[in-house]
Amino acid sequence: MSKNVLVLADVRDGELRNVTLECLAAGTTAAEGGTITVAVFGSNGKDLVEKLAHFGADQVLLVTNSELDQYSTDAFFQAFKAVIDKVNPDVILTGHTAVGRDVSPRIAARLDIGMVSDCTAVALTEGRLTFTRPIYAGKAFVKKAFKEGAVLATLRPNNIPALEKDTGLSATVEELTVELPADSIRTLVKELVRKASEGVDLSEARIIVSGGRGVKSSEGFKPLQELADVLGAAVGASRGACDADYCDYALQIGQTGKVVTPDLYIACGISGAIQHLAGMSNSKVIVAINKDPEASIFSVADYGIVGDLFEVVPMLTEEFKKLLAES
Length: 327
What we know:
8 helices, electron transport, globular, Electron transfer flavoprotein alpha subunit apoprotein, flavin adenine dinucleotide binding, 2 domains
């Protein structure tokens, strides 16, 4: 039975985040031949229509209020609810990002619809739409299905492959005017200060080079950054490194930080505390570098290097430079 699917586009600095394309792929499964509508908030939405169409959107709904250029809970909630009222979707998908995690529970509560968060897979099982999500800090996975009514789900980035780009596809475009009364917006974003390093988005990075207490200081992150620059990777950190003031908490990966699932995770000087493993253990390939051969991180690593990270990481950097120069 075909369904109407609504995807909330996640836009940062005028660019689509990859998780939106992953939501489109999941939406293709959920729609069962139905219509996939993408809602784009902000004044630059028109520039994103073509890309959305090429990755599976049938219809793009533009809400071009300039108040939506920067995320605020009140404004996005009102705009999102207006879009849902118009589209009347059977399935609503967003990324499990800062935006999706914040606005989705409010929408689900207000509309009294079922919600499942942090999904890593979407499938049709015996004719029913099922969502897979981790439980117990990633130690197990559970499949959820809903008996009736609309469903809202947030999808963890880097878990559902985007569809192949098809430049022959097009989408219908419609603009929606949403009233956002000033007295209904209780918060105002006056300035956006980025504390994390510029470059690859940590939550969507395909490769992450991460450091723990073993880096010993903020200076100890320099060789990790050099390796990351060569690989086009993002730099992350354990909570121990953040608590020691070696780096900003914006880089923290773990149960109380960001949850990541890159293709390659290189852990440098990280012991492998359970809180950290909860944030990265689902990475496709894990490489651990640690002086302690008994470190817990080796229990989840696909490849382990016992040695001083300050010797090993520069060697890896040089070898990758050679390999990339030859390719």
